[in-house]
Amino acid sequence: MNREIKRRRAQGGYYMDHPNTESFTCKACGHLVTPEEAGTQHRNHCPNCLSSLHVDNEPGDRAADCGGVMEPISVWVRNNGEWAIIHRCKRCGALSSNRVAADDNPLKLMSIALRPLAEPPFPIERIKELSDLLAGEQDPEDE
Length: 143
Hints:
The structure is a single chain. The chain has one domain. The chain is of the alpha+beta class. It has four helices and six strands, in the order H-H-E-E-E-E-E-E-H-H. A four-stranded antiparallel β-sheet has the order 3-4-5-6, with helices on one face. Strands 1-2 form a two-stranded antiparallel ribbon. It is elongated, with a radius of gyration of 21 Å.
């Protein structure tokens, strides 16, 4: 790579306007990530484990000083129906959203999407009790 390109990348903001064509090794799982299969010119997370690195304050600016591993904690659906991954930095706790790429692991995506249903914030046994209360029925123990 020539010096001029290295200098421009080091100034920050380079990836906001230019595609990222570099391969990298995922810091979380060790998978070699190449941008060719992503379906986007701005590959920013591992398609295997969906982890990323905290390198941006704004997408593509490479201005974050943290450098921590961004773990995938959730998915959400944008207004246009496109899925995005919510990442949380393991080092500083910052949150970010990244588009799902064409080659992302579908099983990992679905496991993240289903996590709230598999691990509800209350005992699963309470569902019958709560549904009975909403229907106006009394708890048999209260009689």
